Amino acid sequence: MDVWGDCFTIAKWQQYVAETLESAGSTPVFNINPKDVREFDAIFLGGGAAGRFGAAYLRALGGRVLIIDRWPFLGGSCPHQACVPHHLFSDCAAQLMLERTFSGQLWFQQSKDKTVSIKSIIEFFRRGRVGPHAVMNYQSKEQLGLEFVLNAQPAIIDVHTVQVGDRQFHAKNLVLALGAKPLEPGMPGSQLKGVFNSQTLVENLDFEPGNTAVVIGGGKSALEYGCFFNATGRRTLVVARHQIMPMLKDAESRAYAILMMQEQGMEFLENAEVMEIQGDAQGRVRSVSIKTSEGITHVDTDFVFMGLGELANSEQITQTLDLQKDDKGFIKVNRRMQTSIPHVYAVGDVTGPPMEMFKARKEGVCAAKNIMGQTSEYKAADYPDFMHTHYEVCWLGLSEEEARQRYANVKVMKLPPDNPNGLDVGLPAGDRMMLYLMAKPRMSGFQKLIIDGDTRKILGAFHIGYGAKDGFQYLNYLVKKGLTIDDLADMDELFISPSYFIQLCRLRAGDPHFNDM
Ligand code: COM
Known about the structure:
The structure is a single chain. It is built from 16 helices and 23 strands. By secondary structure, it is α/β, with parallel strands linked by helices. It has three domains: about 10-80 and about 125-180 and about 310-370, 3-Layer(bba) Sandwich (FAD/NAD(P)-binding domain), CATH 3.50.50; about 185-310, FAD/NAD(P)-binding domain; about 390-510, Enolase-like, domain 1, CATH 3.30.390. The strands form five sheets. Strands 1, 2, 3, 4, 5, 6, 7 and 18 form an eight-stranded mixed beta sheet that branches. Strand 5 (about 155-160) and strand 6 (about 160-165) form a beta hairpin. The longest helix is centred in the N-terminal third of the chain and has 19 residues, at about 85-100. The radius of gyration is 25 Å and the shape is globular. Bound molecules: 1-thioethanesulfonic acid (COM). 1-thioethanesulfonic acid binds near residues 48, 49, 52, 75 and 78. 1-thioethanesulfonic acid binds near residues 52 and 132.
């Protein structure tokens, strides 16, 4: 199907994407400008965050670019299987925690022992995701003027030539933006029905999981999905080979985040390993065997989730191109996004962690600039980070422990302050925390700012609660520019919000030798 010149509305794209996903139809969609006789400056294989942003930037610089994607939409795994479903599930977890906490109070229904259907939330997502897909296609075609081929299985003929069906496309450069997929550990029983990862959960779940979820892994994906399962009212056991949540380096913030998960009923087995998943006669998960320091324990479940990291989507490509990869199989690139083969670039998840949207998009843009003759370098570093438990957990910069190792005069500001009532204080107050503040003060969050007392510069910030994530994007930018306690004190807080430490800084900023608080 050729669509160049046809104006596809968002509704029309929505219908096309829904029908194509439903029917698994394999006819490619070509959106190629027949009047443009220029050779392509680049073909992006993959139109996810890295490919779409890279292509848009390349075109903005005056180049000609083609995106080829296997899916009938642009935007990649984010709206289809990754960020968008994950955020939906996190919203559900936050809402369900609120309902459960206030069950039977104020206007809240009795919901203490309610179990919510995971299957219906997944089906709800599957129906809804075509909306974002359609917007990506519309924006790319009508607003950004991008040329693309969708729903296509391209074959790389050589570094400059890609084939789709009987059509060949030539370009000066090839950009691999192929993404990644969840790691398959291959333990006995991992193929049984009832074992999922973040992709297969949204694509394949066709039964209602029972009362117990077993989650394998201790990192972001394991905990984020685990908290969602727990919030639906299921017993959720997280089994981690090492520590859970190792990326949250500040011990006090990590302790609060873990305590709040435990108070919601999350169970953790650290330094433990799932040895085998047992099935029944129909090939469905029946139980798991877990090895801990105390021996082997068995847990009955029909639902296992693997959150064990990711693997590059690079096998098919590296059969054709002899590209250098790192020891985990991610394509090696330099800071200009160039691979080991001239004229071949790689961007996004296929180049390895962090598997974050900003990193993918910025790598795509970096490749585009280099292709168009600018010199641009990028390496993801010093970025703000977050994860969803039932709360949003945000952090940037150094933990208190790291700061104390590097600086002699570290100051800390935090809420709640150290006090005899412990966490039962009701601060920090802020967006979507007010009900907790009034009725369940220990659940009203935690925030902490780490400062170098000598230079007065902010070294790190941590926040558990809601409403801080957007602020952390800007705060990190300012911290990297050398933001001080005095600069922060000079900002205008939109009260009541967690106000990203502005009020605490203002209380201390007048003091040349300020203390902790
Ligand atoms: C976001 C996808 S859902 S993209 O980065 O805008 O392409």
